[in-house]
Design goal:
There is one protein chain. By secondary structure, this protein is of the alpha/beta class. The chain contains ten helices and six strands, in the order H-E-H-H-E-H-H-E-H-E-H-H-E-E-H-H. Helix 1 (3-10) runs parallel beside helix 9, helix 3 crosses helix 9 (228-240) and helix 5 (80-103) packs parallel to helix 6. The protein is globular, with a radius of gyration of 21 Å. The relative contact order is 0.18.
Length: 265
């Protein structure tokens, strides 16, 4: 860690770190535009942000980190030249980062409709995943060609297929746990914290089921400028919040006691 990261880490409670952090990496295009550079320059600069964030998360002991790298909407709505560049950039990242991932004991996984990506990209993804499969530290998940609504559609298709194999719908009971087991993220805890860069106030079709009770932290920092210290600042904000999961907070719990005390005065 550098000095700023070390100072930020000292402000945290290591016993209350999030078990799973999800990040919506946004702002590459604006970062490039402000510098009068092409959009692809922003994507290229974003790789440095990924490296810094991933290493910091692993070093402080975050069990799971999921990065929203490439949405289904990107695939359909971005110019072909930009999409092709992103695919080449992804391949280069996967090749270049295997050594760093292994040094930090990080296992690489993916979520999304991977089968729709170019075959070369799929091969690089499989190679990088296999090369890190024996690591037992943080799980780094890249969301590629990902859409939360498509994930839920795929989950219900999987549920229907399971029902057909097991006697039909009349014998099939669906609950939240069963749905979670058919999502792309099965095996991972739901995120405690979701970070969105660039100041945008939306989830952008990302982990809609899993983020039901996540704390949301929005920073004005554009993704290419994001570093490990910004992640630690987000965790610091997370630790200041009271997570109620629909229940009453501590202030409400102690309200009757305070009211009785005031009545006696």
């Amino acid at each position: 860690m550098d000095r700023k990261e070390a100072e930020a880490y000292l402000r945290l409670d290591p016993a209350r770190l999030p078990k799973h952090i999800a990040i919506i990496m946004d702002g590459n295009g604006r970062w490039a535009r402000r510098r009068h550079m092409p959009r692809v320059a922003g994507h290229r600069a974003g790789v440095t942000a990924v490296r810094s964030t991933v290493e910091t998360a692993a070093r402080i002991g975050i069990p799971a980190l999921t990065l929203y790298a490439f949405s289904e909407e990107n695939w359909k709505k971005r110019p072909r030249t930009e999409v092709d560049f992103l695919m080449r950039l992804l391949c280069r990242y996967l090749k270049a980062e295997i050594k760093t991932l292994n040094q930090n004991n990080i296992r690489l996984e993916y979520i999304g409709r991977k089968h729709e990506l170019p075959e070369l990209v799929q091969r690089e993804m499989e190679y990088a995943s296999e090369a890190t499969s024996r690591n037992r530290g943080m799980i780094l998940t890249l969301a590629l060609n990902y859409s939360a609504r498509s994930e839920i559609v795929d989950a219900f298709r999987s549920l229907a297929e399971a029902a057909a194999r097991n006697g039909g719908l009349q014998h099939f009971e669906v609950d939240e746990q069963l749905i979670s087991e058919h999502l792309y993220t099965r095996g991972l805890p739901d995120p405690d914290l979701v970070v969105r860069t660039s100041g945008e106030m939306r989830l952008s079709n990302f982990l809609l089921w899993q983020l039901a009770y996540a704390e949301i932290y929005v920073t004005q920092t554009l993704w290419p400028d994001f570093r490990g210290v910004h992640l630690l600042e987000g965790i610091e904000e997370f630790q200041k919040r009271e997570r109620r999961y629909g229940g009453l907070g501590k202030d409400h719990e102690h309200a009757p006691v305070r009211a009785q005390a005031e009545a006696k005065r």
